[in-house]
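hi!! sorry for the late reply, been swamped w classes. u asked for the two structures so here they r. pasted raw, havent cleaned anything up. first the sequence of the first protein and right below it the tokens
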Amino acid sequence: METTAMQHSTHPILVPRWPTHALRWVAATTFLLVAGCTNQTTPEGYEGYIAHTPLVFGESRYVGSQVGPTSTGVVWRQFVTNVDTRPKNYSEEFHILSKDNLSVGFHAHVRISILPGAVKRVIEDLGGPASVATQTDVEATPLPEWYVRNVQQPFRTAVRDVVHGYEAYVIQKQTQEIATRILERLQEEWGDSPIVFETLSIGNLTYPKLINVEIQKKLAAEQDLERMSRERQIAQEQAEITITTARGRAAAQRIVNETLTPLYVQHEMIEGMKALSRTNRATIVSAPSGGGGSGVLLNVGSAPAVSVGGAAKAP
């Protein structure tokens, strides 16, 4: 280190002079320290994969993870790869043959999320979040690498296998059942992975024009059969009601016939005569008659007498 004398009013002042190479070394060290320190952030809805990358020698290694919104703070060469863990919809377009070898077009929409705390498995086992453009994506937008590399083809295979087991005109009527079967298969296959299949739906079905006409005819015929079946069921129920009513009436008539004995009829007649005797308009004269009955002469007001059960006549 050198010194330089500076003139002063009384005594000279000695100022140290740093060598040029020392100043360069300090500047380089400061630059490396600043350049090597990082402060990586993770936004809300993402989970960050933190890895340490050596400056010169060595390999990158996993340090930990962080859930956004947050940051690592100022640390030495720690870099974050952020993975979106929020549920997202992924759509795929299909044109496949049905069970009866008819071409069917449709879209399958699946909602996928990533398990919390599973960012390490996603990055190391499935692939990072880097966007990858694909030809099969309905909206032609880039997709995450983990989806394209590992999820997309198993998803498409499951859809093709299930849909191929249905006839073309049945697919339109049983889309919910088909979607449920596909979803259950995917959930079973990916049960031990960080990928969660939440919901699945099928829509936008398209058929060739001629096939569509045939399908509409089949659907109309089925509707006619269902209508006739309902009408037949209603007619059967009405017939059963009529039969039941007739049986009830016949049973009631049979009971009446069985209870109308001569003594019962005579009893009812006497009860009726009692009721008439309480009025002022009727004059009742009873006389013996043959056959064990009772002869009755009935005079109501000025009307001629009537013989009931005997041979008497009006005067």
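now the second protein. again sequence first, tokens right under
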Amino acid sequence: MRTQIKQSCLYTIPVLCVLSLPVSAADLSPQDVLNILDSMVPRSAVGPSTFGIPSGYGLNDGQGYVAVAITNNRQLEDERDSQPIDGSYALGIGLGDASTGIGFESNLGILSSTPGDQTEAGNLGFKLHKRTAYQEMPIGISLGASNVAPWGDPSAIKTSFYTAASMITSQTLIPTLKPDLMITGGLSSGARNYGQDPGVFIGIGGKYAETASMSVSWAGDELVAGTTFQPALKYPVMVSAGIGDITKSNDAQRLLLSISYSFDLNDQE
């Protein structure tokens, strides 16, 4: 995640920001000045991604996120009539460096968000991940576990294990899309039948604007599609919206909406 620039620099004449650096302007070449000014331009936190399936990439040391999600249709049929709306919260944090060693990501999910039963259901998730490259294309490989140590409702679903590989490559066939594409594929012991049976997942996603991406994925036994966008470049807040079970293969078609805030504890103001 790119280091955040103080707001005072963002709203001040750029040259004043350059002159405030601990180097005199006379020591800077024209290219140095251009590079510094370019670094002050906010960059989008949205990259190509695959919606609704595990990724081969993960969080590195100090990187994390908090998120809230809601859907209009619960996946389990016996819960839909009583409470069709379902909400959840999530927190994730990373350790290690996947480029120089092994990265470790941990996630906490709070799956009961109805007033009166907050935190009565939830689970943990863990992921080991490694980043490498092939012909200058970044590749991420992960091994993870979902629904670990569940409490409340998720205890009815077994802990599942998965392995995933993701690659970012370039495309030129679709002019309306940005060049970068992310392709993900993998195996999970709980990809089908609401986390009960093993299956294969695969997805592809790309950016169609500087601050927006979209993807389509096969999540074991259902088709999932979604889009992610960043409303304001100043803030690392992402909004995702999608549809699960598009083809109604499980009779569980539903809208998926989430809002997340990403952070990096290593960033310096």
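hope this helps!! also noticed smth abt the second:
Residues 203 and 217 are 4 Å apart (CA to CA).
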